[in-house]
Each structure stands twice: as C-alpha cells, then as structure tokens.
Amino acid sequence: MKSILSILLLLYIVVPVTAQKASDAKMNAFINGLMQKMTIDEKIGQLNLLTGGEATTGSVVSSGVESKIKNGQVGGIFSMSSPARIRKAQEIAVRQTRLKIPVIFGMDVIHGYKTMFPIPLGLSCTWNMNLIERSARIAATEASADGLNWTFSPMVDIARDPRWGRISEGNGEDPYLGSQIAKAMVKGYQGDDLSKNNTIMACVKHFALYGAGEAGRDYNTTDMSRVRMYNEYLPPYKAAVDAGVGTVMTSFNEIDGIPATANKWLFTDLLRKQWGFKGMVVTDYTAVNEMIDHGMGDLQQVSALALRAGVDMDMVGEGFLTTLKKSLHEGKVTQKEIDEACRRVLEKKYKLGLFDDPYRYCNEERAVKETYNEANRKEARAISAESFVLLKNANNTLPIKKAGTIALIGPLADNRSNMPGTWSVSADFTKPISVLEGLKQVAGSNAKIVYAKGSNLTEDSLLEQRSTMFGKTLGRDNRSDEALLKEALDIAAQADVIVAALGEAAEMTGESASRTDIGIPDVQHTLLKALLKTGKPVVLVLFAGRPMTLVWEQQNVPAILNVWFPGSEAGTSIADVLFGDVNPSGKLSATFPQNVGQIPLYYNHKNTGRPLADGQWFQKFRSNYLDVSNDPLYPFGFGLSYTTFSYSDITLSKNAFKPGEKITASVTVTNTGNITGKEVVQLYIRDLVGSITRPVKELKGFQKIELKAGESKTVSFAITVEDLKFYNSDLKFVAEPGDFKLFIGTNSRDVKEAGFKLL
Ligand code: BGC
Q: Which of 101, 587, 716, 719 shows the greatest Cβ crowding within 10 Å of its Cβ?
C-alpha cells in the first residue's frame, strides 16, 4: 500500500514537471526559430509598449500607434479596450508586419474591470482571501472578454504613510497580510493556465519600495537598509513571484541611490537570480525617460542602463525604440542583452496563446454576456459589504431600522462617479449605485429617505477641482456654505436618524494625490458638527482612500462606518450594512494615526532602547511625544461588529519545540452578542531576543470565522520554525533559538498572550 502511494506521489510530482519541460522545449524551439528571422529593429520593436490613447496617467501620450505597429515597432499596447478596437490593432500586427508577431494588450485592471470592487485598501480589509481572489477572477473574466490579456496589478507596495495617495491602491502596512493578498490576486487573474481565454497575465508592481517615498510625496526618494527591505517591504513582491506572476513593473523611486528602473541589483541579482523570476519586466510610465531628471544621463544613456539592469519592456517613453540600436553599435549594450529582453517578451506572447490565435481574447458575444452582469454585481455587493470597517458604534446606533425618516446628508451621498474610487479606468461612471439610490432601494417603502448635499467637498474650489479629476466630479454647488448648511439642517429636522456621507473624493487618493492634512475637509467638518448639534443620532459613513485623522469624530460621533470606495454596488452594500442585513466584519490593514505628526505609525515597529512603560503616554527621556501619546487612533487589525466576541486564554500544545516540529496554539472564540457575525482571529508573534532587533509584534496567521449568536469555536494555528524566520544582518533567512511571545486576538492591540521556546 505504502509503495503504491509513493509511486502515485512520484507520478504526481514527476508527470507535471516532465510535461512542463516538454512544453518549454516546444516554446523555446518556436522562439529560437522566430528570433533567427528577426532583424535588430524588429527585436527592439518588441520592447516597446505604447498607450492606445484612452486613459493615461502621465503627460506623455503615444502617437502614431497604427503606423508604429505596421513598422514592427510595437510589442504591446495598453489602455485600449473593446474587442473591435483591439481586433483592428491586432490585425495590423498579424497581417501587415513582416513576421506577423501579435501584440499584447494591457490595462490597469486594478480593482475590477467594468464591475468595480472596493479600492484595494478596502479589499484588503476583508481579510478574506477567497473573496479577494474572486474579485480578481471576475475582473480577469470581464477584461479578457473585452480583448485584454494583461493587467498592471496587483500593486503590493507596503505603505506606512497615509499622506501618500497611493496607499489606497495597496494592501496596507503588513508584509504577511500583503503576501497572502499578492498570492490570491495573482491566482485570481492568471488562474492555472495563461492561455485560457478568460485568464489574464498579472504584473506585480511597483518593484520596489514605491510605498516608502519620503514624506508621503509621490515619486519621492526612498532610502532603506537591506534588512528592513528584506523583512518588511520585499515579502509581498516575492510572494507574487512565488505564485507565478508573469510580469513585474519597475517603480519610479530610487533604491540605494539608483533609480529602480536602472537598478541591476534589484532586477538581475535579486529578482532573477535570487528569486528565480523567469518572466518579463516592464517599466512604469516613462520611467526610463524620468531617469534624465533623476540625473542619470541622457535618453541613450538611461535606456542602456535600464536594459542592462534587466528591464525588458519600455512603457510609453520610447527610449529603447529610439536609442538601443545606436547603443549596440557603440558597444553600450550587447546583442545578448537585447536578445534576452526580446525573448522574454515573446515568451509571454507564446504563453498567452497569442501565436496560436491572436484574437482569442476578442469575443464580442462574451464581452456583452460576461461583463457587468447581474451575477458579477451580486458578488461585488457582498465583497464590498465585507470590506467596510466599523470604527465606532456607541449605544448600538447601528444598525438603523428600515422605518421612519432617514436624513441622508453630505457631498458624497448623491454621487455615482466617485463610488468606484481611484484607478477605475474602465468603469462607466454613470452606473455605480449612489448611497441615496442604495438606501432607497434597500429600505423600500418602509422608510422615507430625505436628502440634502449639506456642503461641497471642501471650501477651496481649486482643491476640489484637483481632487475630482477624470470625470469624477461632485458637482460643485455654487450656493454659499451657509445656504447649503441651512438646507441640510432643515432636512435633518424632519428625520429620526441622520446618515452623513462625508470624507474624501475618489481622486483625493491614488496617483499624484498626496495630502498633508488627512482629516475630513473643512466645510464637511462644520456640517458634521452642526448635524451632531441637532441631538439626533448621527451615523458617519466615511469615504476614504487612506487612514484618516479622526480624533474629533471618534470623540463626538456615535457611529462611524468606514466604507473606503466600495465600487459599482456602493449604495446597495452600504445600505445592507447600515440596515443590518449584513453584519460588518472588515478589519484595518493600516493603522489610523491620531495626527499627521505621528506618521509613520505602524503596529510592527521596533521597541527602541527607551520604550514607554505599559499604559504610560509620556515619560521623560523615553521614546514619545510631549503632546500626543504613541497610540494609534485605531490599531492595525481593528474593526467592530454588530455582535461581540470573547476570547479564551491561549492553550499551547507544548511550551518548547525543535525545528521540524510544530506547536499548536488554540483559543476558543465565542459570539457573546445576539446575532451571527464574522470575526478575524489574528495571530502575532514576537521574537524576544535576536541577533538583530525584532518587531514588537508580527502578524503570522489569521482565520476568518463565522459564529452564530452564542456559538463558540476553537481556532488553532500550527506554528513551525518557518514562521519564526527572518533575514539576519547577513541577509540569511534564519530562525534563532530562544524565547518567543505569542498573541492571539481581535486586533493587533487587544490580544491574549502566551510564551514558548524554540530549542
Ligand atoms: C502608474 C502605474 C500604472 C501605469 C500605467 C503609472 O503612472 O504608476 O501604476 O500601471 O501608470 O497606467
């Protein structure tokens, strides 16, 4: 019996490996044959990625795209959609060029394609990997039906600075959670076979450390020790690579004084040699050209630097296209470097199945049937509701009843275009469901919903203009602030409960949208204060693309539901949670600071040599501030429910273990409230003594469970030596014997504690 099992196991491992080898050999033979026929110009042409002229994110827009395709000067096109347009462009490539090499078609499919899901920061707060994978799967199905085969996602940049607008596009501050999400997204997009017509190739970005720009200013300088990089910032990129991500995008920032796009250590030594990445590297938008401003040389020089660093495809800037041949003749790059880049591009086209059928992703019928359909929107509604984080709920203000009169007030209440949030380039902004529409739909005839705008986004019309771009307007109301407020108070006077839909506009976060003041803007804050003065119960439905500073709100508003930017089904999912049809279960993936001065503030920090004593908030000659405690407003992992959970003490299967063994840590979680709810049970570990200083806590596991009222479940985590490993000062991944603390709880602050030893 045992031997049959081992034969089966051997077959299970050996057969796929052999099959993989055979298909790689077939691909290599095909590409070798093709490359033998290619001229140097045709090879360099493959390294050129242009925009199709729809949505763009930089000031440069590609021109003469059709004639460049015809001349064999285009390897890929992005931001062009619809099967008809893509088919037309592909036809030029496969009919009118000498070697008939098809083009790859990409797009920023970041959190949905036509059916929009919550912004990635919101999605990450579900802590539900199945849902996150589903969102990517649906996005891939829709995008591939519309002609696309490549997405510039997932964005996995760890971010600990909420001033940075692009914190909205990532998964927050934690490398472990970020790594799980990176894997789920890659799996969701790519499935198990890239050549299927409903999967698309993923691109992990922005490699690397883009989230660590100084002062939260976009595109800014980054400088970081290798130990921090390896332990805290690189894991999510590596997780994506381990999950088989097809492509990697460079980042705009510098690393060790060299822009990432020219950083040979990063792309050749680390990514390809150490991590074994076999795919293609693409630059970010004009990142090659931007190295001129970084002070790295002229276009010829920076293009050569990028190629030599291990970059394969040049996005939009055409530095490769216009200078590499000259550099080859002048000995500044080698034929081998050009060949390798070209081969990697062709390999991707091969794996996508484009050489077999260049139109496999162009299917008008599928585009109509599989895009933005009811089934997808139904899933989006559930996913959005699960991303909301209940920050406060004094006296069970929420859920509200589907009865009486509800006043819905605020500049984000009657708005569709902002609901999908930033990076929703393919969404139709007329379609998302507004909060007003959602409340009406879900409440039906049981409750009367009355509405007033109450204020503009901000008093400063110029700031409002900058914060409402790409057609995502809030429709500035030219009445005076006083008139808007008066109207809102009149409406509020009719109501039993007030729902205030306030916060950021969609484009207050995202690319090039950093803020130094991350509170609720001026006039909205005045509105909120006035609404509270009515003495009626007020629920703040907070739209946010980042952790915001909300100390005043926490002190004064009875209930705060953070809904991020929920996507297509914004209004319905918000109504589901407000009325209690869905019990909120989101947990923060990034710390909310008390004020901007505390930034960067993150839970997995070091202890320092002068930590504060427990429970203290100021001690002279300790690491702290005079004017604010070190505490966050809401810690990482935090999020309330309409029910309550209690945690038993931790039981350990043993107190010490050796490498090769494991310890099981268990807690019993009980739903102590009156309704069913979901809870994310979180496991953290602290390495008490190390050869380098270790964080005060690190997330090492989590499980999302559902409990009926009164129900208990025992949740167990198996801990092995792998969970205790970190990169030491020689950058070796090791576990060091000694004492560890283990914490299990409902967030990173409120935990039970136990201890164990690694022998
Ligand atoms: C962004 C990338 C994006 C690219 C293409 C750049 O500005 O940094 O994240 O994928 O544009 O749109």
A: 587
- The position carrying tokens 């409990």 is 707
Q: Which of 56, 57, 109, when mutated, tests ligand 1's pocket best, judged by the most ligand atoms within 8 Å of its CB?
A: 57
pLDDT in tens, 372-407: 999 999 999 999 999 999 999 999 999 999 999 999
Cα separation, 574 vs 570, whole angstroms? 6
639-649 mean pLDDT: 98
CA of 73 to the centre of ligand 1 (A): 21
Atom 2 (ligand 1) nearest CA = 284
CA angle 165, 171, 176 (to 5 degrees): 140
CB-ligand 1 contact for 108 (6 Å cutoff): yes
CA distance 639 to 37: 60
Ligand 1 close to Cβ of residue 285 (< 6 A): yes
**Given the CA of residue 152, which atom of ligand 1 is nearest to it?**
10
* Nearest atom in ligand 1 to 205's CA: 9
387 and 70 Cβ atoms separated by less than 8 Å: no
Chain-centroid distance of CA 325 in Å reads 38
**For position 63, what pLDDT does the model report?**
86
Residues designated catalytic: 284
Query: Between vectors from CA 423 to CA 107 and to CA 48, what angle results, nearest 5°?
Result: 30
**Cα separation, 455 vs 522, whole angstroms:** 10
Cβ atoms of residues 172 and 590 within 8 Å: yes
| Cα-to-centroid distance, 210 and ligand 1 (Å) | 12
Beta bridge partner(s), residue 201: 150
Instruction: Decide whether any atom of ligand 1 lies within 6 Å of the 58 Cβ.
Output: yes
Residue 251 gets which letter from DSSP? -
Model confidence at 18, pLDDT cuts 50, 70, 90, reads: confident
423 CA to centre of ligand 1 in angstroms: 9
The whole-model pTM stands at 0.97
pLDDT of residue 5: 55
* Tens digit of each residue's pLDDT (9 = 90 or more) over 290-322: 999 999 999 999 999 999 999 999 999 999 999
The kind and range of the H/E element at 46 are helix 40-46
How far apart are the CA of 249 and the centre of ligand 1, in A? 9
Band the pLDDT of 172: cuts 50, 70, 90: very high
Pairs from 753-758 (Cβ < 8 Å, separation ≥ 24): 753/650, 754/649, 754/650, 754/652, 754/665, 755/655, 756/652, 756/654, 756/655, 756/656, 756/657, 756/663, 756/719, 757/655, 757/656, 757/657, 758/656, 758/657, 758/658, 758/659, 758/721, 758/724
| CB burial readout 21-35, b (16+ within 10 A) else e | eeeeeeeeeebeebb
Please give the average per-residue pLDDT across 199-211, as a whole number: 98
